[in-house]
Amino acid sequence: MGQVNNILARLSALDRRIIFLLVAVAVIVPLLIPIGLPVDITKPVKNIYDKVESLPEGSVVVVSIDYDPGSEAELYPATEAFLEHCFRKNLRIFMLALWPAGTPLGNMALENIGAHYNKKYGVDYINVGYKPGGPVMLLSLGKNVGDMVKTDYAGVPIDSLPLGKEVKSARDMALVMSLSAGDPGVLHWIIYFHARFGIPVCAATTAIMAPQQYPYLASGQLVGLMGGLKGAAEYETLVKRRGRALAGMDSQSIVHALLVLFIILGNVILVYQRSKR
Amino acid sequence: MEVLGVWIASLLTLAIYSFLYKDNPFYKVAEHIFVGISAGYWAVILWFDFAWPNLFEPLIVKGNMVYLIPIIIGLLMFAPFIPKLSWLVRIPLTFTMGISMALFITQIIQGDILPQLQATFLPLAGIHPFKVFSNLLIIAGVVFTLIYFYFSKEHKGTLGFAAKVGIWFMMVSFGASFGYTVMARISLLIGRVYFLLHNWLGII
Questions:
Q1: Between A and B, how many CB-CB pairs are < 8 A?
Q2: Predicted interface score ipTM higher than 0.90
């Protein structure tokens, strides 16, 4: 008993840097030596996959890059996995960004995945860049795209691009995918775009935002949801793509287990210290 | 050039993480670079994506004088700096409030409140027993949580019990949010470590 007390007393005075070190090891080792822990597919993620599968070839999917480099680690893998599925299904992408720094991230994903499927800019996909204005912009975009979008991200007139000519209003859009890290983001698409024009909306959000989206999933205002890196890993599994999200899942699971252990240990020490008073 | 970018990003990442050991000059340098670049980046974005295409280009290049009105209304925001004219700030403020209310109230009722309310009218018969239980849980969660936020009567007796159940529902929701927050932070760490091991060191 005395030995246990001694260990608990030592643990209660543990330098927090040792915990940081353990977390770092739990992240690095599984990345270097992958274990391949299974990734279960949840219904909200499967719903997005099924929705994309149900769209006829050539349909226009709006992909909204509503994040910046601060959330790149969570949302970029989801962006690539979703684009890969769309291009594989020969769907066309109309990309925009509600966050200023979203445009280059979206471009990077379009160029990486588009090149792999021999997709042509202007015909199979366009990026109209950052569009400020939040709700006002979305309401105008749904009514008449031309009011809000005159050029693409590089300043090329939208009318000179075949896909740009074709997308006139919300009626020409089959689905919206908002990759969202906050405001403006998925809520704007649901409240202002889906409610007004009836276009189905699905989302990939940061894990912090995911719980707030569940009421919208339950009400049917959101078709599906990829929550954080785990959601992206599920989508990568569905589209059979070995991407960055799947590579990180072993680390994620091991660190979670480690943190659960820390929480239990912390509570045991707390109970022990209280009993000593 | 790309290699140089990866090296700069990697060294800045390590400089930021060095704070976990203790505060040091490398961390300070990285922090100041971040603040400076962010300010510069936002200044460029505000000019090229907001002010120029939406205001100054139509006014200067296309000669559309109507755009003088928003400029004047915008400048009135600075009226409080001149005490005699400070009352003029009411004009842009009322304009902004009026537009926002007209736009947001209708759309939030139509796009958020009503569909969410509708989603709580759930069937309790003729479906699988587990679904009945789930629907009951949602209905109870909404009712008891709303009772917690009813402050016109003291939370005693039945009302007090219902409010306590409401707290439990909220606690479960906070727990889920906290769990997701932990997951998000670890994902960001994984992203950075992946960058260091893959893009910088090339060992995975």
A1: 123
A2: yes
